[in-house]
Amino acid sequence: MNTMNKSLAMYRRIFRIAKNWEGKKGDKEYIRSEARYLFQKNKDISDPDQILAKLREAELRVDLALHYKIPYPKPLYATQFIPSIRDKTVVLDPSMDSYRPPPPPSSSSKDS
What we know:
By secondary structure, the chain is mainly alpha-helical. Helix content is 48%, strand content 4%. It contains three helices and two strands, in the order αααββ. The chain has helices spanning 3-20, 27-41, 48-68, and strands at residues 76-77, 90-91. Strands 1-2 form a two-stranded antiparallel ribbon.
């Protein structure tokens, strides 16, 4: 199965899950809007390895949502990675590449 077929199959699977989701009010719409947003955001990726990585991420999120009955990404805290930090700073789950912020622009201005 090529990456286009795999992507469409995952998209359809997510929408079937949303249709049958039994949870809090608003969860179904969250699942649908999140799928639309992320698939639209990643539609221009052409590298097959990147596409497969995104599909693995989607599969992971679906499996976690079905297992825990929670469709939202699992929050991680800095204290899970760095024991010396006392505050619970929310960080992104390293397995969820779609939520990594873009890198800051490089400073190409030269001081004269």
